[in-house]
Amino acid sequence: MYSPVTMSRNMYYGSNFWSAYSHKLKRDVRFYSDLEYEHWLLVETNSDIAVFCEQPLKIAYEFEGKNTHTIFDMWVQERSGKEYFVEVKYSQEMRKGNKKYNRTMKQLEIQRAWCEENKKEYRIMTEKEIREPRIHLDNMRLLVSLTNHFIEVNPYQEEKILNLINNGCFSVSDLCSSYPSIPLRDIYIILSKNIFEGRIQANLDNLDFGYKTEVWSDG
C-alpha cells in the first residue's frame, strides 16, 4: 500500500487544484488538474477497484542536464488483486510540436521503465478515455456527490427496493410506482449507494441518471 507524496499546491499546477473526500478510502484526496480529478471520479465509482492512492510514488531522473523527478498520478488495485500505475495526460502534450512534448515523453519513458523493472502494469489515461462518453462521467460526478448521503439510507426501504430489483430490470419510474411511500430522493440515494458498492448495475453510459434510468442485479 502506498501513501500520497506531499506536493506543493502551486509548485506546477496553478489553480487547477481539487480536494475531495473519498468514500472508498475514507479520507480526503487531492488532485492537481481537472483531468486528474475526473479520472478519480471514474476510479472512485468503479466497484471493481478495491483501493487506490493518488501521487503514490516519486522517481528521480535527469532531464536536459538537470536533476528532476516524476510522480505517478495514481496507483490502483482491483478486488481481483490486479494492480497498476496510472499517468493522466492531455493528449496534446504527447504530440510533436507541443512545448511540453519532450518533457512529457521523457517522463512517460521513465515511468514505463520503472514499471517494467518492477513488474508493474502501466497505463496512460487521456481525456479521450476519461471524458468519453461525457454522460457517463457526469453520472459518476453525481454519484460521488451523493456518497455523503449514504448514511441516511433506511435499511428497510433499501431491502424492499433490492428485493424487487433482484427479480428483474426496473426503471426509476417503475420503482416510484411500486413504492409510492418512498420519496424519490431516497430512491436515488439507495440506488446510488448500491451502484457504488457493486450490488446493482445501471445504464449510466448513455442516459442521464433520472426517471428513465434502468437498474438490475447480476447476482
Topology:
Blueprint: E1 18-22, E2 27-31, H1 34-44, E3 49-54, E4 58-63, E5 66-71, E6 74-78, E7 83-88, H2 101-117, E8 121-125, H3 127-131, H4 134-146, H5 155-165, E9 170-171, H6 172-178, H7 184-196, E10 201-202, E11 214-216
Parallel strand pairs: 7-8
Antiparallel strand pairs: 1-2, 3-6, 4-5, 6-7, 9-11, 10-11
* Rg result: 20 Å
Task: Give, in order, the helices and strands.
Answer: EEHEEEEEHEHHHEHHEE
* Lateral strand order in the biggest sheet: 3-6-7-8
Calculate the mean pLDDT score and round it.
Answer: 94
Indicate the structural class. Answer: alpha+beta
Alpha plus pi helix count:
7
Shape: elongated
CATH topology of the largest domain: Trna Endonuclease, Chain: A, domain 1
CATH architecture of the largest domain: 3-Layer(aba) Sandwich
Low-confidence stretches: none
Quaternary state of the chains = single chain
The CATH class of the largest domain is identified as: Alpha Beta
Helix content: 25-40%
Biggest β-sheet strands, sense, barrel: 4 strands, mixed
Give a count of the beta strands, DSSP E runs of length 2 or more. Answer: 11
Number of domains: 2
**Range of strand content:** 15-25%
InterPro entries: Restrct_endonuc-II-like (IPR011335), TnsA_N (IPR014833), tRNA_endonuc-like_dom_sf (IPR011856)
GO molecular function, one term: nucleic acid binding
Domain TnsA endonuclease N-terminal: 46-127
Organism: Bacillus thuringiensis subsp. israelensis
